[in-house]
Design a protein that fits this description.
This protein has one domain: 3-Layer(aba) Sandwich (Glutaredoxin). The relative contact order is 0.20. Helix 3 links the parallel strand 4 and strand 5. It has helices at 2-14, 67-84, 100-110, 125-128, 154-170; strands at 38-40, 46-48, 56-62, 89-96, 115-119, 135-139, 145-150. It is built from five helices and seven strands, in the order H-E-E-E-H-E-H-E-H-E-E-H. A five-stranded mixed sheet has the order 5-4-3-6-7, covered by helices on one side. A two-stranded antiparallel sheet has the order 1-2. The N and C termini lie far apart (67 Å). The chain is of the alpha/beta class.
Length: 172
Amino acid sequence: MKWVSTVTLMLLFSLPALGQTPDTTTLTKTGQVVPDFSVTTIEGKVVRIAELRGKIVLINFFATWCGPCMGEMPHVEKEIWLKMRSEHLVVLAIGREHSTEELVKFNKEKGFTFLIAPDPKREVYRLFAKQFIPRNYLIGRDGKIIYQSMGYSEEEFGKLVELIRTQLKAGA
């Protein structure tokens, strides 16, 4: 019986602490160059990530059925896009598994003014992650990922806002 207790304790202490489970769903790392992709926005504008070098780019992956995404997007609009909008900042929200038609209808109801593009087959999303939304990726002027997050919390969003503010000031 003693060996069972010893083995149990060894197993418990060898497991990662709660909340520190390694993330196997994120395919990118901070410091790496953002994966190359292009999307067509709901307005018909083609956006090529490679052509955005020299700008700060926030990529937000979302879905219209995702509660945390719908909680986060109004904050993206009000606290990032409307407060920090400039020629040096691009906010691109990519609707995972959504068509252009779905996103046009969605945005007529919501009224977001940043760029929104569909990714109906997860072609862009799968360059960044395997699962889970919302996800944010902040791309520096050099085209490298400087921040990435999964899920939505006010605390984490606050960090993102401050980082964008800092990045914009650094290039001013």
